């Protein structure tokens, strides 16, 4: 059974960089599939941030592309998200998930608050 | 960019009733559409993929239909655990994806 778990700081200061890691268990990410990040501001809908292929090829939401970087570490079976120059508008629950015919499975999500 | 619209924003129904949720795409997505259920404090759960195929372990009361630009999620008889927010999502420009704004199904 494939499981995903997000980890990282729950509080980030404005203008700094948000960094999160997703640890995958039950499947070797080097074997295939895309892996992705999605976020959800409090009380709002879902926004796709970007996806990375097991080879390292990345795809980003055009609205975030200038600030986003997703990387993969197959030795640790993890992939990571960096979002630079954050503002209060980046406060959200951040989810990692495996995009295929649908997004499945998902991590439980982690709330990141941007505040000084 | 393909924009998804969902209707209604809120659907108020009683347990046992039939729920019909709609999702429209600004241009054709063929059958590359999925539906998710999200309960408060939980991650979304995949219900339907490729417009009409049920995800693993999804009860038969959930069904999806449509192609092109018009899609429907039907819950044949609402159970108490079905009151939640439902999102559609398209993947025509794979692996780029977009979500609809969601429909909340609440208790009448």
Order of helices and strands of chain B: EEEEEEEEEEE
How much beta of chain A, percentage-wise?
A: over 45%
How many E-type strands of chain B? 11
Q: Give unreliable regions of chain B as ranges.
A: none
> Between the first and last Cα atoms of chain A, what is the distance in angstroms?
39 Å
Descriptive tags:
heterodimer; A: 116 residues; mainly beta; seven-stranded mixed sheet; four-stranded antiparallel sheet; 11 strands; B: 108 residues; 0% helix; 49% strand
Structural overview:
The complex is a heterodimer of chains A (116) and B (108). With 116 residues, chain A is mainly β. Helices cover 0% and strands 53% of the residues of chain A. Chain A contains no helices and eleven strands. Chain A is globular. Chain B is globular and about 35 Å long. With 108 residues, chain B is mainly β. Chain B is built from no helices and eleven strands. In chain B, strands 2, 4, 5, 6, 9, 10 and 11 form a seven-stranded mixed β-sheet that branches. Classes of the chains: A mainly beta (116), B mainly beta (108).
Helices, strands, pairings?
The complex is a heterodimer of chains A (116) and B (108).
Chain A: E1 3-7, E2 11-12, E3 18-25, E4 34-40, E5 47-53, E6 58-60, E7 68-73, E8 78-83, E9 92-99, E10 103-106, E11 110-114
Parallel strand pairs in A: 2-11
Antiparallel strand pairs in A: 1-3, 3-8, 4-5, 4-9, 5-6, 7-8, 9-10, 9-11
Chain B: E1 4-7, E2 10-13, E3 19-25, E4 33-38, E5 45-49, E6 53-54, E7 62-67, E8 70-75, E9 85-90, E10 98-99, E11 103-107
Parallel strand pairs in B: 2-11
Antiparallel strand pairs in B: 1-3, 3-8, 4-5, 4-9, 5-6, 7-8, 9-10, 9-11
């Amino acid at each position: 059974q494939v499981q995903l778990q997000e980890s990282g700081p729950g509080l980030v200061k404005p203008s700094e960089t948000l960094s999160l890691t997703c640890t995958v268990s039950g499947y070797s990410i080097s074997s295939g599939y895309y892996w992705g990040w999605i976020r959800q501001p409090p009380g709002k809908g879902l926004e796709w941030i970007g996806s990375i292929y097991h080879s390292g090829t990345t795809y980003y939401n055009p609205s975030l592309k200038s600030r986003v970087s997703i990387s993969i570490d197959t030795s640790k079976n993890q992939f990571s998200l960096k979002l630079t120059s954050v503002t209060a508008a980046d406060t959200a629950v951040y989810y990692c998930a495996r995009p295929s015919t649908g997004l499945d499975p998902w991590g439980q999500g982690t709330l990141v608050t941007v505040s000084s | 960019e393909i924009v998804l619209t969902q209707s209604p924003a809120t659907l108020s129904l009683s347990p046992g009733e039939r729920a019909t949720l709609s999702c429209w795409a600004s241009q054709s997505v063929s059958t590359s559409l999925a539906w998710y259920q999200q309960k408060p404090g939980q991650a979304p759960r995949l219900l339907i993929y490729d417009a009409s195929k049920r995800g693993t372990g999804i009860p038969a009361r959930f069904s999806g239909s449509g192609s092109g630009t018009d899609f429907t999620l039907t819950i044949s008889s609402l159970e108490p655990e079905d009151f939640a927010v439902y999102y559609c999502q398209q993947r025509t420009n794979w692996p780029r994806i977009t979500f609809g704004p969601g429909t909340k199904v609440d208790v009448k």
